[in-house]
Monosaccharide ABC transporter ATP-binding protein, CUT2 family
Amino acid sequence: MSEPILDIKGLNKSFGPVHVLHDVDFAVRAGEVTALVGDNGAGKSTLVKCVAGIHPYDTGTVLFNGEPVHIHSPKDAGELGIEVVYQDLALADNLDIVQNMFLGRERGSRWLLDEASMEKAARETLASLSVRTVKSVRTPVSSLSGGQRQTVAIAKSVLWNSKVVILDEPTAALGVAQTRQVLDLVRRLAEQGLGVVLISHNMADVFEVADRIDVLYLGRLVAEVQTKDVTHGQVVELITAGRSGDLGLARPEAVAL
């Protein structure tokens, strides 16, 4: 098994008296899709926000390409090559695809934007991901479908020489055809050598594209398994009860009478 690009060890995070993450170990490897699953309140969003530099973590170690790093802000995460595509996509409807992909990172001088360079880079990025559903990079985002918007948001995340891309519920509220487009794109990201984290409640999507499944239960990582080694039922049990057979949390010992 290859060395992780992103390797988190013993991460703890509390909000006041509430201990949200308990000694979480989490690894992301190049060329793999890792599904991060868990019930609402399991700690998935908190873990991602710690990785993204939005929440400071209390204790733990973060290694990136084997080197210890400290992520204090989204800028720190971005400079390492960690990009997050949140569920709300954070796209500006009144701007076109190029303007959205370079929003806040525009090319050019203080007085004149390099529109030609940005448009070329946007087209090349979409082409590299085999995106064929977008006819023009000058199309306003307001006129795009849900699947096309998700595609633009993902393409935006890989435009900056990213090494790890975290996708938060990328197929939520999409139709069948649009879901197919996004799942194909997720696999292509991994095939290009990126480490991909897929956060999803949709087990069909998880089993279709994920190489590994990591399960969070009440703030603890209770299982890290190869997708081919488990069933839908086992993963659902891990999500809801924290264990399934020999997987997950140890069974409580019988109380002696």
The mean pLDDT is 90. The helical segments are 44-51, 74-80, 97-101, 115-128, 146-158, 176-191, 203-209, 232-241.
